[in-house]
Specification:
binds shikimate-3-phosphate
Length: 188
């Protein structure tokens, strides 16, 4: 089978980068994380990009990062929680990757966001709402979108990152085997 890509989508704190790292190891390849690409090419943190260039500047950089990630075709891509708000990013991702939505309730996401020491530099405020209220409010808009565009949704609040990555790998292999059996393209 040819090289295939899994793209992980979902809200901040869902575990996209952590699961992505394990998944990349299981698939013996690279994880491309779009937030990392953005920070590397900008030479500054995401919080600083928001302060200096505004959210618009960050979203432009995010579009370029998604483009680059898709072009490089790694086995695993993880994108920031807001990347799929731009239809062009969704099209690019869907044209090459199998999209997996890591789903979790607002309380779980908020508790993970709070306990992540890197969060302060990578997750600037997106609204003027405090704490978990921002998560709840944004999830109202984003969760239906994540669900609509994903090929598979998994509950990311119950299993360990390791088990979750194993489950996603197995689901993807089953999907590809089914497509191959029925004579359909195994792409993505
Ligand atoms: C964002 C999520 C962040 C990062 C940026 C904006 C968002 O990525 O891209 O702070 O709009 O939800 P993570 O989802 O990896 O935290």
């Amino acid at each position: 089978m040819k090289q295939a890509t899994i793209a992980l989508i979902g809200f901040r704190g869902a575990g996209k980068t952590s699961v992505g790292r394990v998944l990349a190891r299981l698939l013996q390849g690279e994880l491309i994380d779009t937030d990392e690409l953005i920070v590397k090419s900008a030479g500054r943190s995401i919080a600083d990009i928001f302060t200096i260039e505004g959210e618009g500047g960050f979203r432009r950089r995010e579009g370029q990062a998604v483009e680059e990630a898709v072009r490089r075709r790694p086995p695993v891509i993880s994108v920031g929680g807001g990347a799929v708000l731009d239809e062009r990013n969704v099209e690019r991702l869907r044209s090459t990757a199998w999209l997996v939505f890591l789903d979790a309730p607002a309380e779980v996401l908020w508790s993970r966001i709070q306990s992540d020491p890197a969060g302060r530099t990578s997750r600037p405020a997106l609204t003027s709402l405090p704490g978990i209220e921002e998560v709840r409010e944004l999830l109202k808009v984003r969760r239906p979108l994540y669900l609509r565009i994903a090929d598979r949704a998994v509950d990311a609040s119950v299993l360990s990152m390791e088990r979750l990555a194993q489950q996603i790998k197995k689901d993807f292999e089953d999907y590809r085997a089914q497509r191959a059996d029925s004579g359909q393209s195994t792409h993505p």
